[in-house]
Amino acid sequence: MEIGKLFKKGVFKMAKLSAIAVDTQKVVGGVWVEHYLGYSFKIARMDNAEYIKYLKTLIEPHLKEMRAGSFDAEKRLDLTKQAAAKCILVGWKNVEDEAGKPIPYSPENALELFRKPELVDLYDFIINESTSAARYRQETKKESIKN
Predict the structure, then answer these.
(1) Which of 1-10, 64-73, 95-104 ranks highest by mean pLDDT?
(2) d(Cα 3, Cα 13) in Å, to the nearest integer?
(3) Is 48 helix (H, G, I), strand (E, B) or coil?
(4) pLDDT (tens digit, 9 = 90+) per residue, 54-70?
(5) Is residue 38 within 8 Å of residue 77, measured between CB atoms?
(6) In terms of DSSP bridges, do strands 89-93 and 31-34 run parallel, antiparallel, or are they unpaired?
(7) Which helix (DSSP H) or strand (DSSP E) does residue 42 occupy?
(8) Would you say 75 and 62 are in contact if contact means Cβ atoms under 8 Å apart?
(9) What is the pTM of this model?
(10) Which of 95, 82, 77, 90 is nearest to 130 (CA)?
C-alpha cells in the first residue's frame, strides 16, 4: 500500500514542523543538564554557529598540515576541546576541586579540565549531551502550560 493511502486512512498522522523546531537561544545559550553525580552543566548544541565559526578559526592555520596528513589526531582533538570549552560548555554549578573548593566556570577552566586525561569522561559527557536534539527544541504550548 502506498504511504499516501496510509496517511488518508489515518494509519500515519501528519506532523507539524514545529515538532522539530529548535529554540535558537537554547542552541547557542545552552540548557542546564544535571549529571548524576550532582554537577550541573550549561551546554550549547554541538553544531551551533559560534562553535563552528570558532573551530574554523582554530583549524585555519593548520589546513596545510591537515591536507598533507601531517597534523596528528591529538592536536586535532585539542582544537576541538578548545572550541567546546568556549562555545559548547557555557556554564556550570557544583564543580569543585579535590579540596572541595568551588571551581568558577570560565572557558579557560573548562579547557583545563577537558585536557586532563583522567577527566575524559567529563569531556565525553559534555559532547554527548550537546548532540541531543530534543534538548534544544522549542517548547510547545502544552509544555508551557505544564511549567
Answers:
(1) 95-104
(2) 11
(3) coil
(4) 999 999 988 888 888 88
(5) no
(6) unpaired
(7) strand 40-43
(8) yes
(9) 0.80
(10) 90
The per-residue DSSP string of 64-97 comes to HHHHHT-S-HHHHHHHHHHHHHHHTEEEEES-B-
C-alpha cell at 139: 517548547
Residue with more model confidence, 111 or 2: 111
Domain spans, the chain:
23-136
Q: Answer yes or no: are the C-beta atoms of 89 and 124 closer than 8 Å.
A: no
Interhelix angle 73-87/107-114, rounded to 10 degrees, is 150
- Average pLDDT, integer, range 93-109: 96
The x, y and z cell numbers of residue 134, run together, are 530534543
Query: Sign of dihedral through CA atoms 38, 124, 45, 84?
Result: positive
Provide the pLDDT for residue 73.
Answer: 85
The answer to whether 87 and 111 are in contact (CB under 8 A) is: no
Taking the C-alpha atoms of residue 92 and residue 115, their distance in angstroms, rounded to an integer, is 17
Q: What digits encode the pLDDT tens for the residues 88-97?
A: 999 999 999 9
